[in-house]
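Handoff note, outgoing to incoming analyst
You'll be picking up this chain. Sequence as last confirmed:
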Amino acid sequence: MTTPPTGATSSADAADGYEALFLDAPCGYLTTDDDGCITRVNDTFLAWTGHTREGLVGSSFGRLLPVGDRLLMATHAMPRLVTDGHLAELMVEVVAADRSRRPALLSASRRPPSPGREAELRVVVLSAHERRAYEGRVVATLQQAETAEQRRAEAEHEVRQLETHDQLTGLLNRDHLRERLDALVTASPGGAPVVALLVDLDHFSSVNDSLGHAAGDQLLVEVSRRLRSVVRSGAVLARLGADEFLVADTLAPVADSGPPALALAARVARALEDPLLVDDVEVVVSASIGVCAGRPGDVDGAGLLRGADLARHRVKARGRDGIALHVPEEQVVAVDHLRLLGELRRGIQEGQLRLHYQPLVHLDGRASTAVEALVRWQHPERGLLPPGVFIEAAERSGLVHALGRWVLDAALAQVAVWDRTEGLGRVQVSVNLSTRQLTDPSLPADVGTALRRHGVDPGQLVLEVTETALMVDPDAARTTLLALRELGVGIAVDDFGTGYASLTYLQQFPVDELKIDRSFVAGLGRSDADDAIVASCVQLAHGLGLSAVAEGVEGAGQLEALRRLGCDYVQGYHLGRPMPPEDLVAWVADRAGLLQRLGASPAPAP
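Most recent structure output, in case you need it:
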C-alpha cells in the first residue's frame, strides 16, 4: 500500500475534523448563499427542529421563520449584515417540522466572494429562552404585528426605542444622539443659541463599589428623573456612559448666550443636590458640568459636544463639583496639544531630541565632575525647544515613558563616552524621573538593563524625583526607590520645599541628596523668609545624613549665602549653563575660571 504524503494526510484529516465539528457542534449551524438559499445544515439543527437535510438544502432559510421574524430579518437584520458583515444575537423563533415555534438566538456572518468562490452566509442558531429582555420585547411586538396593522406600528415604535434609547433610564443613547442634536441646532427658532451640558456624576463608582450595581442603577434612574424635571419639552436628554448625561436645549435669542446657559446648568446642579435614598442609605450626588453654547451656523452638534467635554475636564481638574463654560480658545489649545504630542512622538522616533548638561559644583572647589542631563527638542520648524514647552504635555499623555527611556539611555551612552575621554575622569550624571515613571514597576529593571548595555557603573547615575511625585503614591515610590538603591544608583529629591512631604515620609525613602528649589535660592539675601527656608532645608538634609544641593544660583551673593549656610553643592548659570556634551571638556579644563567664580581656594581632589 502506498502511503500518501504527510502533508496530504494532514490536510485530509483536518478537513474531516472540521466537517465533524460542523456536524456535531452543540449549536445549530447553517450556511446559505446571498439569496438565502440553504447550502449546508448540521445534525444538531436537524435533531432540534425535526427537519431532514433533504428537505432543507436548496430551500429558503426564510421559510423556517414566522412572518414577524421574516420582517425583522428583512428590515433590521439583513441590512446590518450586508453593511457590517456580521449580526450578533438576534432573538427569533424557528418553525420546527411539526409547525411548532421554538425560541432561538441567531447570529450570522457573511464571507464575501473571492476568485473561484461565491459569497456565503454562515448562520448560528442557539436554542435559548428569553436571553435578553429587550430582544424578547422585540419578538413579542413583532409577533403582534402579524395580526393587526395597529399592533405592527406599535411594535416598530418599540423596536426604534430599543435601538435608540438607553434601556435603564429610557433616555436617548449615545449612538443616536448626534442626529437629534444636529436636528435641535437646525430647528433653533430665529437662530437662537443652543446649549449642551455634559453632566458627569462625581464619585459614582464608590456607590457601585459600596452598595452594589443594583443600587447604582437605582441612582442613575433617579438622576434621569430629576434631569427630566428641569428641562422643557423638546429638549434633548441622553445617557452617554455609565455616569455621564447630556442635556441640550435652545436658549432665548439674546446677544450673550453665556448667562442663560449657566443658569440652566445651575438648575441642573440644584436638582441633583437633594440627597437620594438608595437601599436605605442617604446618598448625596454632585456633578462636574461642562457647558457649551453657540448659534446655528457657528456650531453643530459635534462642536457642542466637544466644547462641553473640554469644559467638563476643566471642572474635574479643579476638583469636581462645579460648572465651567467652554470658550473657543480652549479648543484651539486642545488641538495644539494633540498636534504637539504627535510631533513629539515623531521627534523621539526620528532622533530630534538632544541632551544638554549643567554642572553641579562642590562649594569647597573639589575637582569632581557631576552634571544634570536636561532634554531639549530640536524641532524641525521651531528650532531648539526647552523642556517647559513639551514635558508637561508628555507627562499628561503617558508619552513621558518613551521620553524618559530615551533620556536615560542617551545620558548613560554619553557617560560611557566621557569615561573614555582623557582629562574628564569619572563623571556622575543626574537624570530626572517623572511621576508616571516613578510609579512604573518596570523602572528598576529598565535602569539596570540600560546600565549594563552601556557598561556604566551604577554609582555614576543619580535619579532625581520631585517631592510631589513621592507623595502621589508613597508606598509604590518607596518600593521603586529601594529597588533602585539595590542597583547602586543614587537618589535625589528635586524641587525640595515646594511639595508636601512630611519628615516622617522623607525618612522612609532611600535618598542621598536634597535639591533646594530655585524659587527659594533666588530670594537669598533679599527675603528673610527665603533665608530661613534654605537654612532649614540644609539643616534637614544634614540631619538626615544627606547632601544639600542648591539650584538656580545666579550670582556671587547667593553663592556666598549658601556657603555660610553650609550647603554642599550648587548649580546655576553663575557656575555653568546647560551645555552640549562636547563643551564639557573645555568647562572642566577651565579650573581657574571655576575657582574664580566660586571665590574658593584650590582644594585637593578627594
